[in-house]
């Protein structure tokens, strides 16, 4: 028996990092609602039918909102960095390892 490894094929997403300055603009983009019930910790409530828990429906300052096809998802910075590589990071990596242009 030969055990092999494979890497899951990636897919592209559009994303925005949430800041205090763009909170309202991002909420309009993703069709969410800004929740100001705690003025010190505002967030965008994301409409994500496939969320596995309540935290996945909340995008706080410093989090990322991602769009894939027609759906939006909230990712913490840690989850985003673990799951995605930006196109800039990929380009830099390919230049450094010789697989790029």
Write the layout of secondary structure elements.
Layout: E1 14-17, H1 23-30, E2 33-35, E3 43-45, E4 58-60, E5 64-68, E6 71-75, H2 77-83, H3 87-97
Antiparallel strand pairs: 1-5, 2-3, 3-4, 5-6
- State the order of secondary-structure elements, H for helix, E for strand: EHEEEEEHH
Q: Which secondary-structure class do the elements indicate?
A: alpha+beta
Rounded mean pLDDT score: 86
| Biggest β-sheet description | 3 strands, antiparallel
- Give the strand content: 15-25%
C-alpha-based Rg, rounded: 17 Å
Count of alpha and pi helical runs: 3
Uncertain segments are none
Spatial shape: elongated
In whole angstroms, how far apart are the ends?
Answer: 37 Å
Strand order of the largest sheet: 1-5-6
Number of strands: 6
- Indicate the percent of residues in helices: 25-40%
Number of domains: 1
This entry's quaternary arrangement is single chain
Short description:
This protein has 101 residues and is an alpha+beta fold. 26% of the residues lie in helices and 23% in strands.
Structure characterization notes:
The chain has one domain. It has helices at 23-30, 77-83, 87-97, and strands at 14-17, 33-35, 43-45, 58-60, 64-68, 71-75. The model has no long low-confidence stretch (mean pLDDT 86). The longest helix has 11 residues, at 87-97. Strand 5 and strand 6 (71-75) form a beta hairpin. The protein has a 3-stranded antiparallel beta sheet. It has a 3-stranded antiparallel beta sheet with strand order 2-3-4. The chain is elongated and about 55 Å long. With 101 residues, it is α+β, with helices and mostly antiparallel strands. 17% of the residues are buried. The termini are far apart.
